[in-house]
Amino acid sequence: MPMRKLHTELVDRFGNVWHHTRVRKYLTWEEWSPIIAKGRPWFGLLELLRKHPEHFVINTKWKGRAISEFVSLVSLLS
Q1: Are 20 and 34 a contacting pair, CB within 8 Å?
Q2: Please, what is the angle between helix 3-14 and helix 20-27, to 10°?
Q3: In tens digits, what is the pLDDT along the chain, a chain of 78 residues?
Q4: I need a labelling partner for 15 at 20 to 30 A (CA). Which of 9, 31, 42, 60 fits?
Q5: Its Gene Ontology biological processes (predicted)?
Q6: pLDDT for the residue numbered 72
Q7: Would you say the C-alpha torsion 10, 71, 61, 52 has a positive or negative sign?
Q8: Number of domains the chain contains
Q9: Which domain holds residue 55?
Q10: Does residue 25 lie in a domain region?
Q11: Going by DSSP bridges, is the β-strand pair 56-63/66-73 parallel, antiparallel, or unpaired?
Q12: Would you say residue 75 lies in a domain?
């Protein structure tokens, strides 16, 4: 699933349910340097998923300057 789509879905479904200070770290990029986040609002979520490589596989594709990031559940790949 594209990270952009996953991030949008999580924000739409849970953005108003989760406490704002807990969600901000992973669903917004306000806590991250704009240079590091590179305008990707899902950057915090990406970092969270990278902490759990036993559950998630992240693929990154570059097309010129455009970056596409995709995430998959390990259990779906096995």
Answers
A1: no
A2: 170
A3: 899 899 888 888 877 777 666 666 777 767 777 777 777 888 888 888 888 899 999 998 988 888 889 999 888 765
A4: 60
A5: regulation of ribosomal protein gene transcription by RNA polymerase II
A6: 92
A7: positive
A8: 1
A9: 3-68
A10: yes
A11: antiparallel
A12: no
